[in-house]
Amino acid sequence: GFDGYAKTEVWSPVRVQATNNGPPVEGEIRLTTDYPGDTYARPLSLPTGAQKEVTLFVILRGSGRYTLQFVSDDGTTLYHHQKSPRQFPPYNLMVGVVSPSGSLLNFLAGMRNLAPSGDTPIVVHLSLAELPEEAAALSALNVLVFNDVETASLTSAQRTALAGWVSQGGTLIVGGGPDAAATTAGLAELLPVTGLTIQTFDRLDGLSRFARRTIPNQGPYLAAIPGQTFGMVDLYEQGKPFLVRRPVGQGQVIYFALDFGLAPMDGWAGNESFWSNLLQDAPILLPMDVAYETSHNIHDSLANLPFAGVPSPWALLTFLCSYLMAVVPLNYFVLKRMRRQEWAWFTIPSLILLFTLGGYLSGFQVRGQHALLRQISIARQVSGASSATVDTFLGLYSPRRAPYTLHFQEGVLVHPTEGGNGFRGVKRTSSAPTTVRYGSPTELRNLWTDIGSMSTAVAQTHTEALPIYVNLRLQREGRAWRVTGVIQNQSNQTLQDAMLIAGNWGVRLPALEPGEQEINKPLSSLYTDTYSRQTLWGTSYYQIDDPQIIANDQIVRGIFWPGYVGPFNSQPGNNAGNTPGNLVTLVGWGEEDIPEARVTVSGGRVDYDRQNLWLIRAPFLSSTPTSKAE
Fold first, then answer.
1. What is the DSSP letter of 119?
2. For 15, phi and psi rounded to 5 degrees?
3. Alpha-carbon torsion 614, 12, 247, 119, what sign?
4. C or N terminus of the chain, fewer CB within 10 Å?
5. In this predicted model, what pLDDT tens digit does every residue of 104-160 receive, in sequence order?
6. Would you say residue 557 lies in a domain?
7. Number of C-alpha atoms within 13 angstroms, CB side, residue 156?
8. Does residue 412 lie within any of the structural domains?
9. With a threshold of 0.85, does the pTM exceed it?
10. How far is the C-alpha of 616 from the C-alpha of 584, rounded, in Å?
11. 48-76 pLDDT per residue, tens
12. Do residues 461 and 411 touch, judged by C-beta distance below 8 A?
């Protein structure tokens, strides 16, 4: 986990240090969870005298207890150890601190008012090297603070992961002070400030008002003041921007001009009030595969198999009538004409067996001839960003009981899912463990399917963002709203079934083709009562013959309105009069596969059915930034 802490149902890094003082050995590190028994592995080569560190990314459930082994290529277990991390529910607030001080901000662990759940926050201390290179691997963290640390050494992959994590709902906080240049060096693309200069302040009256606590000692205090800001200034000191906040997707980036480890922030009685105000709007969002209602709707869509339609009533009636006619009148008249009525003892069971066999073979036809991999990839990006995070939900259907191996790109995080609430697939059908083997390629081995059933998994990675730019303004029109502006699609693909969604409001768009599209449309409330049963695209469920349209509608509803659990018993929003908010999301189904999310299967003949949904978030344009305190 992070600093020995882990959250259930969320990715946790397990760092393993291996030393070999004996002869060289080839093998793999294996981590097996007590429940549900999944194994995560990575190959490891250990020459004599070698010291290596490898990281496994795992999903812990239940007690979180796991067994760590090193197994050589000949099957010999050379290391065996059991361990249980300190584990918390996924909705607990976890604050990561990257700083030379191992005690900085530890007081936050006693502030229950920081977390909406009222639980004790978790403060973990991390080094730069411990920051993962995938956004999904950071999902256990809700807040990440950088202070007095040289970030220029962050890798490109780490910076991309941080950007993806913020856009999904993370809060990134960067401290200033005399060493602000080093702290901000590797985070410049995310920060809402540029042009830092060190200035001296004798008094901090603005900070006192912000925290509603006096600062007893006088300066001088060294602060890194930005020359230019991009976002909302929450706090000014003597007319200088001191606390700047910028929303990024569903998350936010905050810059504070002082060093959190120096005066007056070290030991100040106003720290608790300051951090309460600072984090009062910090979101606590569950990953998409953990949120029950979202994953439930996606699983239902995966189960929508193209060949698994229910036989028509006329076909069933024809089969039943043929059976009755053959067994009773036809059999009787044929035997009577042949004067062999005594053969009925043989012909009737034979006809029953024949029709039973025909029905059984028809069932095979309904279930398909070979396996099918259903893949729904949901790519999320910020308008104008360079990368997008991708959650891929997988359903492997097979007409026979068999094990399969799924192959992924290197670096993809993948875990199997199991029967239960939400996106958990079916119960395991084999005692042999399902194994995630990280490498090139990453593989999900021994994924069993039962006859006519579907086994499921979730994969998470990142990809290049679509060059689509959303520049829209929100205007009030009486009790309704209107969006105006331009959407520039500089990609080479068209987004089908496109929509703009803001809060409980939205509007359908024509297919978003490459090029520039002027937008001047009124928003409609997406509130739907239990009787209208309208899809988000304006068509009644009763008028739809294609089940894929309903399945796509349920996926979008499940993402934006977690309370939605089906077309006939819920609604997208709580109130038709809710304001749209300050974020708009462009939603559309892509025409091309996402290369990094592409999955192949071995173990038999397999067909593929892939869908890609793009969510592109952008803030509504505003003429001037606003400020809260000066």
1. P
2. -95, 130
3. positive
4. C
5. 999 999 888 887 667 788 999 999 999 999 898 998 999 999 999 999 999 999 999
6. yes
7. 3
8. no
9. no
10. 8
11. 999 999 999 998 887 888 999 999 999 99
12. yes
